[in-house]
Amino acid sequence: MVEQATRAAIVPKRIQAPEGKPLRLDLGCGDNKAEGYYGIDIAACAAVDYTHDLNAFPWPIDDATVDEIRCSHFFEHLTGAQRIRFMEECFRVLKAGAKMAIAVPHHNSNRAIQDPTHQWPPVCEQSFLYFNAKWMEDNKLQHYGIKCDFDFSYGYSMDPDVAVRNAEYQQYAIKHLSNSALDLHVTLTKRG
Question: Rounded to an integer, what distance in angstroms lies between the CA atom of residue 161 and that of residue 165?
Answer without folding.
Answer: 7
